[in-house]
Amino acid sequence: MNPLFLNFILLARTAKDSTSFDPSMLYLILALVGIFLLVLLLVFTRARLYPLLKLLYVRMVYGRFSYEFLEFFKENDLRNPHNNCIKDEISMHFFTFYKPKRGALFFQTETKIEFGDIPFLTDYKKLTKIKGEPECINVSRFNNTRVKLVGYNEVLQNMKMKSFYYFLEEKFVMGEYHFMDITKVKSADILGPLTVKYLKGENVQADNFFITDPLGDKINYENNGFSITIRYLFRSDSSCNQILDSVFGNAGENGETLIRTLKQEELLNRF
């Protein structure tokens, strides 16, 4: 073969190879463009992306019924994703035991006061294992103590009611039965079992009264004409008593602590 012709073929092949397309360059360009667009997206959406990531973290670590989860919605001025158990403040339900209404009656019982089959000081996680996830929830603070209220819809002898569980730092300290519509409930059907168990069947003619057992635990029965509420307060733990007494103990004389608590609750419940 002619050497000149051979050289021509080699040069033509070299030129063809040098102009061939390299796919790795395309991948590199696409990767750089993707990184650039991602950076732009992060810059313009960081104000929304960071809270979303934080919410996902809080839910994974603490759970969607935790105090931290609900506090996130308050801090970011978002609507509470769960139903509220009560429309008023949690503190007013405790305050009932510290400043009874005028005309209330007081009784002593020899029977230990209990709230159904859930022992006082049960922690929140154990309660949910027994009763499942709550159907409503409220949170608050008593000074630096976290307070949580969870509730369930229940039926007691064909009577619809709500059962509420109040926690101080995950400790169950107060229970409450709330009968919403007393037009469908006979007060005698509620008073009867209560007085039989704790007052030996004494006939109590009162819309508001208290029962105290030998350990200091208390019951408050209240019929306000629209609903009936029975609250059970645990008073056999010194640390819980100290927390409650620090907020409500001097409320009758100097209510500054209670007022601060109410203001804080109002902010916490602005969902």
Outline the structure in words.
- The longest helix has 40 residues.
- It contains eight helices and eight strands, in the order ααααβαββββαβββαα.
- An eight-stranded mixed sheet has the order 1-6-7-8-5-4-3-2, sandwiched between helices.
- It is of the alpha+beta class.
- The chain is elongated and about 95 Å long.
Please report the number of helical segments. Answer: 8
Number of strands: 8
Strand order of the largest sheet: 1-6-7-8-5-4-3-2
Strand content: 15-25%
Choose one word for the global shape: elongated
- The span between the termini is 91 Å
Q: Which regions have little confidence, pLDDT < 50, spanning 5+ residues?
A: 263-271
The biggest sheet amounts to: 8 strands, mixed
Mean pLDDT: 79
Query: Into which percent range does the helicity of residues fall?
Result: 40-55%
